[in-house]
Amino acid sequence: MGGNEQNYVQEAFDTNWIAPLGPNVNAFEESIEDYLGNSIKVAALSSGTAAIHLALELLGVGYGDDVICQSFTFSASANPITYLGARPVFVDSERETWNISPGLLEKAILDGMANGKKPKAIIAVHLYGMPYKVSEVNEIAAKYDIPVIEDSAEALGSVYKNKPCSTLGTIGILSFNGNKIITTSGGGALVTKDVILKNKAVFLATQARDNAPHYEHTHIGYNYRMSNVLAGIGRGQMEVIEDRVNSRRGNFEYYRSKLAHISEIEFLKEPEGFKSNRWLSCILVPSYNTREKIRLALLEEDIESRPLWKPMHIQPIFEGCKVYVDGTSEDLFQRGLCLPSGSNLQKDDLDRVIEIILKVLTQ
Ligand SMILES: *Cc1c(COP(=O)(O)O)cnc(C)c1O
């Protein structure tokens, strides 16, 4: 926590705004809007998953539609597609950012169109905070007139060509889950340049209540609005977002500086114009066996590390979905490891991790 969170939570109690609306919700939204830029509108929601669900609905995705989704991601990017009775089409990553491959994306779109089924939307992800190839993806999306949902759950504080991630697609989404760079314990947001879209998101997120003295409904609604208590945590967190980005980037730079001389270890570079918040510090090693050796050696010392995300197209639950893959994400999953990356890690903590990795690789 940054320091002021409890004061804002106390304010919610003192003023009796214990509800999914109130001054903290409005102020939290405004602080994100200020951070992202003046023309941006933000709707605070109960989770990033809820934000993706609403984004898909607002873009008109419905039963039987195809939605393209980056395969190399957390399952929450893809699950909401199925909530609407639509079907995910998984597209592999390229090696420079580990995110959706523009070449395979276009192939998936062209195939869909050839079969009389143009995809209804594209979900692209800034995985681990690294921006995807936004210009290329947007160009393809514009060429075929398909909206882009920009999954920025891991990328608050990341920047692409001087513009903040979550403002670069048709609709952006953020997450404030407990593991993200800032948190409200659980929470999310929908990000848009269109105030009408924001209002529609809030309308759907608050049970789609029409304007009437009684309860009148012409739409199916959801209970997806953020609590005013949790938004208080968010207000405090937004005051320290820049510190959090700096510490995450600091972790990454420290690991890199101490491990750069080991030829077996690869770090993902930032291409020109890309700035990652380095939400997690990840490494690639030459083989699955080496990755497991490092992971188990860390575990032996009570240090948790994790393999990179297992791609969606090899998850049992998504068996049988359409896929456009070239082996990239499966290879990353085999050889990649997320190292301890918390914003509160001290130099001593990082040194312990580094020492164990060096021991494994120089044995
Ligand atoms: C965390 C995460 C989500 C979901 O956010 P929640 O707030 O946990 O629902 C979606 N996509 C990605 C890539 C994530 O990492």
Automatic annotation (TrEMBL):
Q: Which UniProt keywords apply?
A: Aminotransferase, Pyridoxal phosphate, Transferase
Q: Any keyword Calcium? A: no
The molecular function GO annotations come to: transaminase activity
By sequence similarity, the record places it as follows: Belongs to the DegT/DnrJ/EryC1 family.
Name assigned to this protein:
DegT/DnrJ/EryC1/StrS family aminotransferase
Q: Which organism is it from?
A: Arenibacter arenosicollis
